[in-house]
Structures are given as C-alpha cells and as structure tokens.
Known about the structure:
Flavodoxin/NO_synth, globular, FMN binding, 207 residues, alpha/beta, NAD(P)H dehydrogenase (quinone) activity
Amino acid sequence: xxxxxxxxxxxxxxxxxxxxxxxxxxxxxxxxxxxxxxxxxxxxxxxxxxxxxxxxxxxxxxxxxxxxxxxxxxxxxxxxxxxxxxxxxxxxxxxxxxxxxxxxxxxxxxxxxxxxxxxxxxxxxxxxxxxxxxxxxxxxxxxxxxxxxxxxxxxxxxxxxxxxxxxxxxxxxxxxxxxxxxxxxxxxxxxxxxxxxxxxxxxxxxx
Length: 207
C-alpha cells in the first residue's frame, strides 16, 4: 500500500481565478492518492470593497463553505501548495498575513522538511507571475521547506512555459481557467504528491 500523503492546498482569491485553480489542484492531488485539505486565507478587505466588485462578491459567496486556513493545517500537512494572485509582483496581503502567523511553528521547527509548491494568476503575461512565485518561495527557504516546482519535467510545460508553478493570465477576470492551466495544475499536483511520498519513504527508511 502506498505511503499516505497529506496535502494542504492553501490559497487566497478575490475574484475567483486562484480559487478555481486551488479546487483543481486539490482534486488532482486526491486523484494522485493524497489526503487533501482545501483551505482559504482569511479576508482582510472591508465588505464594502468586496460588494463593489460583482466578481469578488460572487467568489466570496461561492467559497463561503471553504474553511479558513489555520496553523493546524500546516502541522497536519506533509506538503503545502500555496496559491495567490499577484499584487504588484508579490504575494497578496491575505496570504502573507496567514504565513506571518506561523512564527511559533517556525521557531519550533514544525514547518521544516515539508514539501512546498505554489501557483498564481496575473492580469497579463508579464504581470508578475515569476516574481510572485519567487517571492513566495523566499518564505519556504526560511521555513526549511523542500521546494518542489514543476520545472520543465513534462512536455506540457514547454507550452505553458512557467517552471516556477502553475500560473494563469486572467485579463480583467474575463479569461477563464482553461485546459492549458488545468494541465499545468495536474502536472504540479502529481509531482508534489510523488516527491512527498518519496521523501516520506526515505525518511522512514532512515529511521
């Protein structure tokens, strides 16, 4: 029987693009044999701001049943896949706030030796996909995490072109998540589960 793998998919999404990718990431990780928790970062924006944007308000309603991420999800997970739209080439404040609550776990060494990976969305093709993921991955280095990015490890990656993580160009929210992004999501989820299992097997053998 394969070694069990726990994967937490933790994301922030305002208008729904990253939420769509997160749900697909969770589904593909489950298909690859992982136990999965899908969690969202808590919202910081005022309700008035959310209500002013129909897509934002619709996504808030559509994802109301998804639990907010907690430190317990990080403890439970063998692998954590983090998703965020870009904010000026960086991680959203909402996801960053969640990460900033993990100082106690970091000090206790509870975030080290886990697998981490990331995904993002931007308005344009050069709107910060790479810089956002690299900024996110700086945090992983501080955690002592094991970064598993998709790289160019599948023929499809030469089509979507992003070795850092799944990314989607959403325009002004008018470009829906399509087959290319979903394929990248599948490749990344499967790779995360594969290497998380291999690392757990290796550690078990050492012990």
